[in-house]
Specification:
Length: about 350
């Protein structure tokens, strides 16, 4: 199989052109075609000779993702399934709002973390996405925003399929292609990476001095409860995560976003709110309370509106910044936690019901 030219760095690209007797500036031209002009074939590279384009086509390929299916919600949300070069499927979502257009993108085919409330957690992890496949999701969703809403994409969240920090190298390369001046030149402040919580990799983000935003998918501030719904917590305790997040903030000065789904009769009491305050108050942060989006594989339910208001009200009185987020795209299974490629076979895993 030919190599995807997008998996080659600038230095190796320059070496290639030197080896075939071409001028060094050809590497810059091809790089611009790939990462600034989003070329999907070598034939598009019109400032290269036909002979050189044929040579590139003989030695390399561009494994661009292909749109498979599109669904549009009654609220305007658009979910797209993309077919990859090896026929695997991923899903991405465009979330339109009055003040922004947000792309929710995937970082893996499937997921290995087994979070019990998330449809993707009931899939097997097939493989990591490479930087080009991450980049292509942005390009395709940006095309949708322009076609449907006549404005460009403004924000990107890594909250789709997969755990971004388990595909660390490729995700950071993908973000670099999206934010770099030799790429799409999008502001890092408009990109948020959401993680289920891998302490050592959060510290690595700090050491690498990333500029994008970080969100932690928390959902319980009690180790016993979090272990039940998020097995990753068994090896990444709340204490370890708190230490890693403080380290991240000290290095980047970026506030953390905590994502918290309030499940009925599981993590919705005043005691749960107190535990959340105890965890979050030391870390410069904000809390997004997220509506639960039901999936067929699990038996969770949303808490009642009165409990939700008491929960959020307690945190606000204690001085935390709290936003209650309404889900988008539930009618097409595009909301948070619902991405699972229903067109593909999903290997079921053990359910966890909060009443157990």
């Amino acid at each position: 199989m030919k190599r995807d030219i997008r998996n080659i760095d600038k230095n190796d690209l320059s070496k290639y052109f030197n080896e075939i007797g071409e001028k060094p500036f050809r590497a810059k031209q091809v790089w611009e075609w790939i990462w600034q002009k989003s070329a999907r074939s070598f034939d598009e590279m019109s400032n290269l000779s036909k002979t050189l384009r044929e040579q590139l086509d003989e030695d390399f390929e561009i494994r661009a993702i292909q749109l498979d299916t599109v669904q549009q919600s009654t609220d305007g949300t658009i979910k797209s399934a993309f077919r990859l070069h090896d026929h695997a499927l991923i899903e991405s979502v465009l979330i339109p709002a009055d003040d922004r257009m947000t792309a929710c993108v995937s970082s893996q085919v499937g997921c290995s973390l087994n979070c019990t409330f998330c449809a993707t957690g009931y899939m097997e992890r097939v493989r990591n996405l490479d930087p080009g496949e991450i980049y292509d999701q942005i390009i395709e969703i940006n095309r949708q925003t322009k076609e449907k809403f006549n404005i460009p994409l403004s924000n990107v969240v890594f909250m789709g399929m997969g755990e971004p920090l388990l595909n660390y190298k490729n995700v950071l390369k993908g973000i670099d292609r999206i934010t770099g001046k030799d790429g799409l030149n999008m502001s890092s402040r408009r990109i948020t990476l959401s993680t289920a919580g891998i302490a050592k990799m959060i510290k690595k983000l700090a050491d690498d001095k990333v500029k994008f935003n970080l969100a932690l998918s928390l959902h319980a501030a009690n180790d016993e409860k979090r272990n039940k719904i998020m097995p990753i917590n068994e090896t990444n305790s709340l204490a370890a995560l708190q230490d890693a997040l403080l380290y991240f903030h000290a290095a980047t000065k970026n506030k953390i976003t905590f994502e918290y789904i309030v499940f009925d009769n599981f993590n919705d009491t005043l005691q749960d709110a107190k535990e959340l305050w105890n965890f979050a108050n030391r870390i410069p942060s904000k809390i997004n309370i997220i509506e639960y989006n039901p999936i067929s594989q699990a038996d969770f339910k949303n808490t009642g509106i009165d409990k939700l208001e008491q929960f959020a009200g307690y945190l606000r009185k204690k001085g935390l910044v709290v936003n209650v987020r309404k889900s988008r795209g539930k009618d097409i299974d595009a909301a948070c936690g619902q991405l699972a490629n229903k067109t593909e076979s999903i290997q079921s895993k053990v359910k966890y019901a909060p009443s157990e």
